[in-house]
Amino acid sequence: MPTRGLIARDLRVAVENNEILKGIDLTVEPGRVHALMGPNGSGKSTLAFTLAGHPGYQVLGGSATLDGEDLLALPPDKRAKAGLFLSFQYPAAIPGVSVANFLRTARMSVRPEDLNPAKFRKLVFDKLDTLDMDPAFLGRYVNDGFSGGEKKRLEMLQLAILAPKYAVLDETDSGLDIDALQSVGNSVNALRESDEGKDIGFLVITHYPRILKHVPADVVHILIDGRIVKTGGPELADEIERDGYDGVREEVAFKAAMDEFVVAKAPIV
Amino acid sequence: MSSGATETVAALDFTPTAVTLVEVLSVLANQDELATIDEVRQDEALRREALATYEALPAPGARPHRGWKYDYANLSFDELRWTSGSVMMATMPKRPVHRLDAEDSGADEIDRPALATENAGGLFFFGATYVDAPSNVDPRVTVLPLTATTVRANEGILNGGHTHSILHEIVDWRADKFAALATAFQNCGAFVYVPDGVQIDAPVQLVFANSEAQDDAVFPHVVVVLGKNARATVIERHVGDGDPFVCGIVEAHAGEGAQLDYVVVQQAGEAARVIFSRGARAERDAQVRWHLAELGGALVRTVLGVRLEAPGSRAEASALFFNTGLQHVDLTSGVDHLVGPTTSDTVVRSAATDRGQGRYIGNIVIRPKAHGSDASLRDDALLLSKHAHIDSVPALEIAANDVKAFHGATVGSLDEDALFYAGSRGIARNAALRMITLGFFEPVIARFPGEALRDEVRTALDRKLDDATEIDV
Ligand SMILES: Nc1ncnc2c1ncn2[C@@H]1O[C@H](COP(=O)(O)OP(=O)(O)OP(=O)(O)O)[C@@H](O)[C@H]1O
Ligand SMILES: [Mg+2]
Questions:
Q1: Which of A77, A85, A91 shows the shortest C-beta gap to B423?
Q2: CB contact, 8 Å: B415 with chain A?
Q3: Ligand 1: which of A13, A15, A47, A204 to mutate, judged by most atoms within 8 Å of the beta carbon?
């Protein structure tokens, strides 16, 4: 039986021949929440896109698996069918395609077996309600002319309706007002409390600990310059908010220097 | 954005002659029992003049329309089959209705969309022959084949009953090569009249059908007149698996406060050539809305126009085409704001795949007296394969002050971000491509009247996506 989890091993990724991810090791277990923080440009979205299979990202080495299944061998839609969901930092618009139609198509693609139209309808309306969204959204075109906050709510609506095994939320909290953040938190928590959603493993990419007040993280990782340089408990997020990344950077630099020192000394010892 | 835009310009090889016309006329004369000598003479004079005009006017494909190739669509006029059964002239009185034996004609093989459904009534043409079919048109509305009798009986309406005359006057055949051709050889047609104050819900349908057994030369002339505050929807359909040459004219007049929705769903056979000049005139506070879905045919050429002749009048044009295989579609729309304030809104969406070729010319003219007018023209093209090509040539001519005019055009390929986004939701690339392409047409489809019609267009587009061989760039 393969290890369960969304797992990256020494994952190295380039964009347009620039190496962005320089060996990522990460395991998101079912039902757990991992937060991923890091300065702008450190490679957070690159990791998210690589896991989801964006064609613009070249994998130079390493692996990515979902409950043992090799994600890197699959096209994006098969990764979704395997149970991966990505909430986009900047969701794309699909003009002319209604939200209702899109949701139905997506749900049927990911889980063809279940839900008659009546049940599907009920599911959608329940989730809309949790997210405090106007049902009129169903008739609008996907992300077309949506405000930033509306787009993020639509991402959360899709998360709730698709109920994947693992969800990567790329800055879902950015640009949300207090109420919207609350709605997003409620929606994620309602999902995590449901039968369908209790085993979802989350990778929450964020710049702010405030989302973690709504969705508490079990583990916090710090990504700097394409590497996870530090992993800790929820207190790490507050530390970052207080001190910024410089503290972590110094610590890392110090450790690196110490390692070198130790290595240099080694023959003598 | 595209390749294959060679400059070889091959004009249509039409060589109709006065001799052809005389032959046609003699066929018609033999059938003509009740036309007066005067009517026959007038008709013949008009046709001769129109043929001379056709011959004198330059073919499209020549400058100034460079880059447009008709070389897949060469047509020799002599190939066209002229049968007495398929020819019905304006000068054929008394028995406007050809009762055809359905078995002989093959008419029963045609899928007759909607004439039998949707509670719609109208006229059904098989080739150029009017086929009498049960029809439940609203009794307040006149729907007749356009014949000499019809013209004679409705003289007041057609020739000046309203402020202007209508027949042969709304579409300027003297300036349009194919309208001249259609005038010279007109062999079928329809007259739709909705009197003052009459508003009908069920659409009037004009179905032009064809089968493989009968590759006809069809020259329809449709005249639609809406009286004061009248309201109607007319649907013109082209169906069947034959490969006819259709060259027609549509003239529409919307009286004061009238509202006309004129819909064209063109699904002619895959080698058909379908050429139309369609024009409308809107009186004070009238609204004319054209809705075009050009889906079938090998060579399609449509000229669409509205003249806004009185204050408060409004034109809407919504058109789409989707060229697959070797299809060529050439669409020109024009709105002429003669006075102000008048408004117009034109939305065109075109897509091409395989080796499909398309061209759209959008004209907006705002004349010196059209103060306070508002015109909008938006056209977007989507290229789905390397060998597909669409040209877009918008032209705004504004001669009045104090007007609003908007114009926007794009030519693009599929949005990779949208494809990836749909993919990340489990939707396979092929399905996503379909979804995004259909969505692309939606702004035009959404303007078609009635959900049944909208669904019909969506289904037809979906079927075209099935048939496309080369998609994805
Ligand atoms: N398509 C691309 N072309 C060129 N460079 C790219 C591309 N995508 C990402 N990069 C580069 O890769 C690096 C990492 O980008 P990424 O979007 O992963 O950062 P991030 O950690 O998500 O940042 P942010 O917090 O600002 O969202 C950046 O330097 C970025 O400029
Ligand atoms: Mg990012």
A1: A77
A2: yes
A3: A15
Average pLDDT (B155-173) is 82
Q: Kindly state the greatest CA–CA separation across chain B.
A: 74
CB B269 within 8 A of CB B325: no
Q: From the CB of A46, is ligand 1 less than 6 Å away?
A: yes
CA distance B162 to B157: 6
For the segment B42-61, the average pLDDT, to the nearest whole number, is 81
Going by C-alpha positions, the residue among B224, B237, B41 that lies closest to residue B124 is B237
Amino acid at A20: I
Beta strand pairing status for A141-142 and A94-98?
Answer: antiparallel
Q: Flag residues of chain A having pLDDT under 50.
A: 269
Tell me the C-alpha distance between A149 and A182, whole Å. Answer: 12
Q: Min CA distance, B419 vs chain A (Å)?
A: 9
Residue type, B234: V
Tell whether ligand 1 has an atom less than 6 A from the beta carbon of residue A159.
no
Q: Compute the radius of gyration of chain A from its Cα atoms.
A: 20
Instruction: Decide: B280 and B259 in contact? Cβ < 8 Å.
Output: no
> Which homologous superfamily does the CATH classification assign to the domain defined by A6-97+164-265?
P-loop containing nucleotide triphosphate hydrolases (3.40.50.300)
A76, A81, A94: residue with CB nearest B439: A94
pLDDT above 70: percentage of residues in chain B: 76
B77: DSSP letter = G
Regarding the beta carbon of A226 and ligand 1, being less than 6 Å apart is answered: no
Q: Where are the alpha helices (DSSP H) in B132-248?
A: 148-153, 155-158, 177-185
Domain ranges of chain A: 6-97+164-265
Q: Do residues B202 and B232 lie in contact, with contact meaning Cβ atoms separated by under 8 Å? A: no
- 10 Å CB burial of residue B26 (0-12, 13-18, 19+) is exposed
How far apart CA A170 and CA A173 sit, in angstroms, is 8
Q: Residue for token digits 């075209």?
A: B464
Distance, CA A41 to ligand 2 centroid (Å)? 7
d(CA B38, CA B32) in angstroms, rounded, equals 13
Per-residue model confidence (pLDDT) at position A268: 52
- DSSP classification of residue A68: T
Helical spans, DSSP H, in B32-73: 37-56
Q: Do B418 and A92 touch (CB under 8 A)?
A: yes
pTM score: 0.86
Q: If you average pLDDT over residues B190-211, what whole number do you get?
A: 93
Beta carbons of B265 and B238 less than 8 angstroms apart? yes
- A95 contact residues in B (CB cutoff 8 A): 439-440, 442-443
The answer to whether the Cβ–Cβ distance between A86 and B441 falls below 8 Å is no
Chain B nearest CA to A244, separation (Å): 32
More confident residue, A124 or B33: A124
Give the pLDDT confidence score for residue B268 in this predicted structure. Answer: 93
* Phi, psi dihedrals of residue A235, rounded to the nearest 5°: -65, -25
Distance CA B163, CA B170 (A): 12
| In chain B, domain spans | 6-310
Task: Report CA-CA distances (Å) from B106 to A52, B240, B299.
Answer: 56, 11, 25
Q: Report the residue count for chain A.
A: 269
Does ligand 1 have an atom closer than 6 angstroms to the CB of A232?
A: no
